[in-house]
Amino acid sequence: MTYILVLEQILNGLQFGIMLFLMAAGLTLVFGVMGLINLAHGSLYMVGAFAAAAVAGWTGSFLLALIASLAAAAAAGALMELVVIRRLYRRDHLDQVLATFALILIFSEGTRWLFGSFPLFLDVPSYLSGPVTLPGGIEYPLYRLAIILTGLAIAAGLFLLIARTRIGIQIRAGEADREMIAALGVDISKLYTLVFALGAALAGLAGALVGAIQSVQVGMGEPVLILAFVVIVIGGIGSIKGALAGALLVGMTDTLGGVFLPRLFTLFMEPASAASAGASLASMLIYILMAGVLLVRPSGLYGGSA
Amino acid sequence: MMVTRESLLNWAMIAALLLVPLAAWSLDEPFIITLATKAAILALAGVGLNIALGLGGLISLGHAAFFGIGGYAMGILAAHAQNYEPLFEWPFLFEGSNQMPLIWLTAVVFSALAALVIGALSLRTSGVYFIMITLAFGQMLYYFAISWSAYGGEDGLSIWVRNEFPGLNTLDPIQFFAIAYVILCGALFFAARLARSPFGLALAAARQNEDRVEAVGLTPFTLRLTAFVISGAITGLAGALFADLNRFVSPTMLSWHTSGEIMIFVILGGVGRLYGPVAGAALYIVLEHLLGGISDYWQIFLGVLLLLIVLFARGGLIGAIAGREKAHG
Question: What DSSP assignment string belongs to A95-146?
């Protein structure tokens, strides 16, 4: 085991963590600002990936595909908010869980109806394919590196948006006291639609970016959704900073655990059973991490009161 | 006992669930008996969840964990009985079994233990954290089952012959239905008694006003944990029966879709209503069968229906027919 392998896996973990952050940021914003738990967030990820795959298929342009993913997911998110979600803000979490679960069924089966059950493939564009040599002699796929950099830029943009802009101030004010900002003349229902669409666009972009690494298929959003939940539970619901910390923690734990736990187990077990025991434990590792964090801090790393 | 529209409806439902398979039996339609058996078993899982959800107000999105543990209890014991390999020989010999009562006991014990651990950790939190944590624990077991290659991993475990119950031929659909039906009725009776017991009243009170319950000297945490364990155990029993019905258990039983579906049974019928899961599971099975015959994409219709119920008909099916009476009892 060389240091190059370790560094490569750390980069993979970083890339995975950043994808998770794009998912978790929208989820946690929507929860923080509107108090809404949205299980259908994974469907928006799927919508983004399918839109990107379809547009890339028609035009052959990866850039257009990314723009399509943002637009389609934002539009689907805004539509979802206008038709269903806004009736749920004042309801209890159970109603929100069920209604958004129903939305998952509608989105998944609707996509299956439109695109069929077979996975689509979104190719990495030629200018981003192939490896790149990083300082220190590490060969790393250029596309994954581009995801890391894009994700970091978006994260920075999101922090600026929330910390510095008028919209950001309104979003933060909405988190603190929605009656008050409504009284100050902010059109709160428009703000909610906007925040929801923003979260949706981030999820859609994540779907499109990952779609070029994995395949694009119905149901692809669900495992990611659950990981995004783990992320925001670890980070503290409603906190963007927590989402970033949680996403990186989960991305690293999952990636490094998956690679190194089986190897670690070979130190004191026979290879065959070490591989299987290591893999089982690795697949549970992030949930163990989450349970551990919650034992110490029941409302997450950056959470207020639960 | 007061005869209300709801209690009449409840009797009608539980009678229909018995009469439909009996009629199918006399007409020699084993498929309908199997559908009814499936409805009874899924209703049982819902009765389990409803104790946590309806009575305790605990929105668990991880009940598939207990359903799946029940399923794997059946799968593992039966697989070992099938191969004549003991589960373990040390510290004492423990062999597989194809006897339903023993399998049920194992399913109940292990799902209750899992509920104790998951509940003790999850109940430290509340609200949306609780939903997500139960979801995550369910996923934890799901991924564990997928990578647990000794028991089929992703492919699951098939059992060639249905397990045995003394004095019955469980391969006969109507006799297996009878087992599921009797257990469902037993669980309904138990849930009704539980809701009216001092424990059930305290639990319902903790749902409505935590501070007052604490003020009279009860501990909401203990009440909820007890309810969660009972709830998990009943759902685990349903899981063992469900696996036996299909003679197959796979990680799908543990997936969060299953948790969502069990919750749908409860909500379709009417949350917090004792017979809600019965109505919900029956409606779900009928819809699956009818809509599935019309379109491959029937889950779109299910989704729309569910959405309409959540948005506009909050009492569920029973609520729509019997009106908004005070529930669970």
Answer: HHHHHHHHHHHHHHHHHHHHH-SSPB--PPPGGG-SEEEETTTEEEEHHHHH
Residue A37 covered by a domain: yes
Per-residue model confidence (pLDDT) at position A304: 66
pLDDT at B299: 85
* Listed residue (B263, B268, B297, B265) closest to B58, CA to CA: B263
CB B129 to CB A306 under 8 A? yes
Question: How far B290 CA lies from chain A's nearest CA (Å)?
Answer: 17
- Residue B296: predicted pLDDT: 80
Question: What mean pLDDT is predicted for residues A25-53?
Answer: 91
Residue at A265 is within a domain: no
Model confidence band, residue A201 (pLDDT cutoffs 50, 70, 90): very high
| pLDDT tens per residue across span A50-78 | 999 999 989 989 999 999 999 999 999 99
The number of domains in chain A is 1
Per-residue pLDDT at B329: 40
CB contact under 8 A, A306 and B127: yes
**Cα distance between residue A205 and residue A214, in whole Å:** 14
A233-239: average pLDDT: 87
Q: Is B154 on the interface with A (CB under 8 A)?
A: no
The ipTM of this complex is 0.83
B123 lies within 8 A of chain A by CB: no
Using the Cβ of A306 and the Cβ atoms of chain B, whether some distance falls under 8 Å is answered with yes
Q: What is the DSSP letter of B162?
A: -
Task: Look at B139 and A237 and tell me if their CB atoms are within 8 Å.
Answer: no
Task: Return the structure tokens found at A2.
Answer: 């060389």
Q: Which residues of chain B have pLDDT under 50?
A: 326-329
Q: What percent of chain A has pLDDT over 90?
A: 42
pTM: 0.87
Chain B positions touching A232 (Cβ under 8 A) are: 132
Distance CA B62, CA B115 (A): 10
Long-range residue pairs from B118-122, CB within 8 A, at least 24 positions apart, any chain: B118/B62, B118/B65, B118/B228, B118/B232, B119/B224, B119/B225, B119/B228, B119/B229, B119/B232, B120/B225, B121/A291, B121/A294, B121/A295, B122/B60, B122/B62, B122/B228
The alpha carbon of residue B54 is apart from the nearest alpha carbon of chain A, in Å, by 11
Q: Do B147 and A31 touch (CB under 8 A)?
A: no
Is A52 within the bounds of a domain? yes
Q: Where are the beta strands (DSSP E) in chain A?
A: 131-134, 138-141
* Chain A hits for B306, Cβ within 8 Å: 98-99, 101-102, 105
Chain A CB within 8 Å of residue B20 CB: no
The helix (H) or strand (E) run that includes residue A90 is none
Domains of chain B, with CATH numbers? 5-17+30-322 (1.10.3470)
Six token digits for residue B307? 């959405």
- Domain interval for residue A50: 2-219
Residues A123-145 pLDDT 10s: 888 888 888 888 877 888 899 99
Q: Sign of torsion, CA B204 A32 B143 A221? A: positive
Q: Does A49 touch chain B (CB under 8 A)?
A: no
Residue A259 lies in a domain: no
